[in-house]
Amino acid sequence: MRIIGCDLHARQQVLAMLDTTTGEVLSMTLKHEGNNVREFYSTLAGPVRVGIEATGSMQWFVNLMEELGIECLVGDPAEIRAAEPRKQKHDRRDAELILKVLVENRFPTIWQPSKELQDLRSLLRHRHQWVRMRTRIQNALQSIALANGLRRGSSLWSHDGQSTIASLPLAPHTAYRRSELQAMYVKFEAEIEKLNQRVAEQAGGRAGAQLLMTHPGVGPVTALATEVFLGDPGRFTGGKRVASYVGIIPMEYSSGGRQRLGGLSKQGNPLLRFLWGEAAVHAVRRDPELQRFYRRKLIQKGLGKARMAVARKLGIRLWIMLRDQIDYNEFCRRGQRQQRSGEVCAGMPETRYGATCHRPID
User: Fold this and answer.
1) What pLDDT, on the 0 to 100 scale, is given for residue 86?
2) Cα angle at 110 between 108 and 111, to 5 degrees?
3) b or e along 53-92 (b: 16 or more beta carbons within 10 Å of the residue's beta carbon)?
4) Among residues 130, 195, 122, 188, which one has the least CA distance to residue 157?
5) What pLDDT is stored for residue 249 in this prediction?
6) Which of 20, 40, 74, 166 has the maximum number of C-beta atoms within 10 A of its C-beta?
7) What contacts 24+ positions apart, CB below 8 Å, involve 18-21?
8) Which of 73-77, 126-130, 338-342 has the lowest mean pLDDT?
């Protein structure tokens, strides 16, 4: 068997390959030019195991290994690096380190989404990018309007508001900028509407997303993003693990009995964290328990922390609904039953904060 530690880069990869039969270790650099990578791996005889660190440009290599029938393990870069106490770091040492943890059977393999989930993630990221660009266009148009005494707020995006800003007497270059921005805004609006329809279709065809949309304030975008970015809900052992995965836990540097907490770690998916924060604003208006929790945190911590606390609680709720394959009404029933029995409600810090349904239970 051949075990390969691969330090993968965009233009090349550095390999440390062990032949378990002879014990020989070979180091080499493989350029990503033409069919060099395919030709090299296709000529390797016998079972082959390859280990790489997770990177943003690794998917083509993972697909190639799957096509060639080669076992490819993807590891956590932070945990792999923690296995090396020395301060020297270069490509050859990185490849040798990956090979070492592979041989010692302590390679920190991470969960990999399926191709279907990766494609759905691309759809959600594409929509989010267009929304961000539309926001920049809106900010530019608002700036032009405010600079010329037009204060319409959100009504600027209505048909009447757009007609009003189009009729403003402006200098030639500013007028040209305004016209171009308005044309781009119309184009982005139409494209985002198409993407919203595609997301709604995908969410409507997935059982998990349909369950999540039963929660007040959760729409197709948030539901689909929660399902495809969390992936298998069973891989999380608790709500704290989910919050840590998304990056809505505080930074901590505690030692010697003294606890030091900072702001959010933000070590997680930024899109899912953003969507949970947006959905939390709508959920507190429709869910009485979340509303009480939000008001309490608003007094204790202020606006920003209260909003993220609700986003965390909402995200844990959605994870529980995915894990147990239950809808919002069933989640409410379980919360009320646990409150009556004196047990801790799943996903809630204390029994008195358990989930209650704002609709009558049959």
Assistant:
1) 86
2) 155
3) bbeeebeebbeebeeeebebbbbebeebeeeeeeeeeebe
4) 188
5) 86
6) 74
7) 18/99, 18/103
8) 338-342
Closest CA to 228 of 332, 132, 108, 318: 318
Degrees (nearest 5) of the Cα angle 239, 240, 241?
A: 90
Neighbours of 173 (CB within 10 A): 8
Give residue-wise pLDDT tens across range 254-280.
Answer: 888 888 888 888 888 899 999 999 999
Residue 343: pLDDT band (50, 70, 90) is low
Q: Tell me if 200 sits within 8 A of 209, measured CB to CB.
A: no
DSSP state of 79: H
**Reduced to 3 states, what is the DSSP secondary structure of residue 133?**
helix
Q: What pLDDT is recorded for position 118?
A: 93
Q: Is 113 helix (H, G, I), strand (E, B) or coil?
A: coil
Token representation of residue 38: 């395919």
Q: For residue 25, give both structure tokens.
A: 């270790």
* Distance (Å) of CA 100 to CA 4, 23, 93, 111: 10, 13, 10, 21
Are residues 262 and 305 in contact, defined by beta-carbon separation less than 8 angstroms?
no
Is residue 250 within 8 Å of 261, Cβ to Cβ? yes
Rg of the chain over Cα atoms, rounded to whole angstroms, equals: 26
